[in-house]
Write the structure tokens for this entry.
Amino acid sequence: MFQTDFSYSFYKKIIDFCNEIGSIIPLKEYDRNTSNEINFIWRHDIDISLNYALTMAKIEAEHGIFSTYMIIPDSPLYQIQDTENRKILCEILEMGHEIALHFDIETAGVKNPADSNDINTAINRDIKKITNVCGTEVNSISFHRPLQKFLYGETYICGCLNAYSSELMEFYISDSQGSWREGNPLTSLSKFDSSVGQILTHPIWWAEKHMTPTQTLKNHLARQTKTMTRNESANYKEILKQTVPGVRQ
Ligand SMILES: [Zn+2]
């Protein structure tokens, strides 16, 4: 049975495996019509903290690959306007990665999720927020806990390439909640027989040495709440629990 490995050395193995089959690209570089080669779209949804994203971005750049970092403009866990976070986002961009929108219907101020206009307005508002902070165009979108209608949905939403569109979901593996649902990603990739694959990872789960998601969250929580009051700390813990509901803390 596959023992999950969230060490950076295993991460590099996944990269090397994909590089042997095709090219690893960020979402914005994907174009089915002009591409004849096999592409692996590489994306990260940043649900918890930008710090882990920065480490991951450096590892990838050193390893010669560029990917998409999808951020939540009004995340309750990190503020993209903070000086430190702005710096991180600039650094990630300067390395050659893409910054794009991770759309969270809960925090984006959507009053009626059944109303497409309402959703589109919120998406456009979020896009502007990212552009204002990062000074970059937003070309791609992924959904935090996607509504059914966006899964295997349209290729473009509000002018952004939809990571959950049907053509990008032919082959899709993800480390959501610190677990590869399909088992060993290298085994999944060895059965790859499509022209495009998508790999989603969450930088928080990865570290120099493998740790279980429970341990990772525990460490994160301890670091994050060190200088918080008791109330702030309880509040942070609750939001974290809601963000990654499948992992015990
Ligand atoms: Zn998410």
Residues 66 and 139 are 15 Å apart (CA to CA).
